[in-house]
Amino acid sequence: MKAAVIVFPGSNREGDMARALERATGQKPAMLWHADHELPAGTDLVVLPGGFSYGDYLRCGAIAGRAAIMDAVRAHAARGGLVLGVCNGFQILCESGLLPGVLMRNANLRFVCKMQHLTVERNDTAFTRQYAKGQVIEVCIAHGEGNYEADDATIERLEGDGLVAFRYCDAKGIVGGPANPNGSRNDIAGVFSEKRNVLGLMPHPENLIDPLVGGVDGRALFTSLASAA
Amino acid sequence: MKARIVVTLKNGVLDPQGKAIEGALKSLGVEGVASVRQGKVFDVEMAGADPASARAQLTAACEKLLANTVIENYQIDL
């Protein structure tokens, strides 16, 4: 598994992401700069880390979505390559057109930073095969603009095609209501692309890979990816 | 040539910031406010003098970057 992490001005989770990838794959990921034009030959997985790319100016992820490297990321995704975007990376994937919809300001207008439960909607993907279908996992969230919105037709398509990856829930796995931290439509925390080779999610699995920080429920996402290629 | 681009949220898209401002106006005693929607204004100085080509360039700017057409509308005033 050869992974590449794209670093934008304002990214701040690239170190955690690189550590999680190295632990799972045994190989340090390549760190690429936003102004680069090419991915290293043989790249299996491209990761867009969390942070505040370009200061979140204009809209979250909007400027990063049009950065030079993103043409290479789009080409990689088009040929079936794996792409993961976490938090600001999810926002970038939506703004770049790699995933549908948009992340808006949290409905309660508050930045939320806390532990959060999620349901794993399906485990037949490169990202989730080492989870169980319907498993409740606990990871952390830290975002001000994680309120997933799309038009009704898009939401219907995502639901109908099984492209919702994770949903916000409580510790018992009950989805919705107070368990939804940001007002996301249908409690959506993450979505897949049509071919399920692109995943964007707001929570930070890369921060829950070590018992020292309170949990390891994020690990399986990275070990799933490591076994995928 | 000066241009002003106004980007606003489409109708029906929840605007939490607009709602917060609406609440603040009400608490300040400003009367008659039915609702508030927040948008963005871009003042752009175009180097050329041809309005038609400027409009075409600004439309491209809106479609490519300034507006997210999933949730936003834009209006160009030259």
Q: Structural class of the helices, strands and pairings of chain A?
A: alpha/beta
Biggest beta-sheet profile of chain A = 9 strands, mixed
CATH structural class of chain A:
Alpha Beta
Strand content of chain A: 15-25%
Most extensive protein-chain contact, per-chain counts: A-B, 20 and 11 residues
Question: For the record, what is the CATH homologous superfamily label of chain B?
Answer: Phosphoribosylformylglycinamidine synthase subunit PurS
CATH superfamily of chain A: Class I glutamine amidotransferase (GATase) domain
Q: Could you say which structural class the secondary elements and strand pairing of chain B correspond to?
A: alpha+beta
Shape category of chain B = elongated
The number of distinct β-strands of chain A equals 11
> Class of chain B in CATH?
Alpha Beta
Number of strands of chain B: 3
Mean pLDDT reading of chain A: 97
CATH arch. level architecture of chain B: 2-Layer Sandwich
Mean pLDDT of chain B: 94
Secondary-structure topology with pairs:
The complex is a heterodimer of chains A (229) and B (78).
Chain A: E1 3-7, H1 14-25, E2 30-33, E3 45-48, H2 69-78, E4 82-86, H3 88-95, E5 102-104, E6 112-120, E7 136-143, E8 147-149, H4 152-160, E9 164-169, E10 188-192, E11 198-201, H5 219-228
Parallel strand pairs in A: 1-2, 1-3, 3-4, 4-11
Antiparallel strand pairs in A: 5-8, 6-7, 6-9, 9-10, 10-11
Helix pairs in contact in A: 1-5
Chain B: E1 2-9, H1 16-27, E2 40-45, H2 51-66, E3 72-77
Antiparallel strand pairs in B: 1-2, 1-3
Keywords (chain B): ATP-binding, Cytoplasm, Ligase, Nucleotide-binding, Purine biosynthesis
Subunit structure (chain B): Part of the FGAM synthase complex composed of 1 PurL, 1 PurQ and 2 PurS subunits.
Family (chain B): Belongs to the PurS family.
